[in-house]
């Protein structure tokens, strides 16, 4: 049978996965490596390219894990989505501590960011297909204030201009990589609920940046969904992508998973309606991506429940079952659904 990756390429669509380097290197877990290599046409580092991973000690870059992933991709003829150059999470402790105690000034911080982007993009020049340049810069309706705004460490310390700067620095370092703005809760438009506002905000932000000549090539929609929120609507998800595409940029689903609450016994039974709801949501995003020409890739945020960020993060109530293979690497309904979407598109 053909892999998701191979089926995707029939439609010029890359189907990718985030890769957990510890799992990839676990000699007792060969199936992880086998599936990561064979089933996908694109890979993303789940953590290995984040600033805290790359420069744990000021001035000393540790490239081992990130290099390994880039090599792995090359060996398996996969494209690489670089993740992530500018984010407020997983920053090195020396950086956040230095800003907090005032030993790193605003001016120095901006220079550190410029150097970081330049160093990382330059190292992988020509080897990265898409870079997530700026990640999650926009607040959510449940934040304070509830009016959408630029949130987090970078906006607080440098002001929103860091976004334009980051794209310019990335472009200068590798003119051929596609530069993405990446965020969550922008997957659908037209529901009338507050998620529309964030999609609109990101749309307007990118429009404004493009008007200023900022080199931004794509908008990444993460796709962290949950069955407890009901099923996404194909028309609304397609609408969100089309509105982004109408700005003249590429689009992608960059971190798709669909979690469920694990409160009942028998959670892993095939008859579980959550498996069906999960499959339906995975499929809605895939159908939308297939329907919009600008949608270049569909990446799952981990492919097996054996290695997923979800159980670690959501424990009250516990959540899981968020990926397309179960803990024993058996493909779930979602996997088969994605395949049939790709076959019958
Ligand atoms: O580095 C330590 C390691 O030394 C230690 O052994 C281990 C034990 O728990 O923890 C390790 O750090 C963890 C790291 O993942 C690597 O496994 C962190 O505690 C944990 O917080 C971190 O979680 C990651 C999360 O981003 C943190 O922000 C998840 O794996 C990763 O899937 C998640 O990915 C993000 C995307 O980058 C952006 N969009 C949202 C998405 C989900 O949160």
UniProtKB/TrEMBL annotation:
Q: What is this protein called?
A: Beta-xylanase
Q: Which GO terms describe its biological process?
A: xylan catabolic process
Write down the superkingdom of origin. Bacteria
Q: Does Hydrolase show up as a keyword for this record?
A: yes
Enzyme's top EC category: hydrolase
Keywords on record: Carbohydrate metabolism, Glycosidase, Hydrolase, Polysaccharide degradation, Signal, Xylan degradation
Q: Which GO terms describe its molecular function?
A: endo-1,4-beta-xylanase activity
Q: What is the lineage of its organism?
A: Bacteria, Bacillati, Actinomycetota, Actinomycetes, Micromonosporales
User: So what family is this one in?
Assistant: Belongs to the glycosyl hydrolase 10 (cellulase F) family.
**UniProt xrefs under SMART domains:** Glyco_10 (SM00633)
Q: Give the EC number.
A: 3.2.1.8
**PROSITE patterns in alphabetical order:** GH10_2
Using the record's annotation, list all stretches that form the GH10 domain. Answer: 18-341
Catalysed reaction equations from the record: Endohydrolysis of (1->4)-beta-D-xylosidic linkages in xylans
> What Pfam families does the database record attribute to this sequence?
Glyco_hydro_10
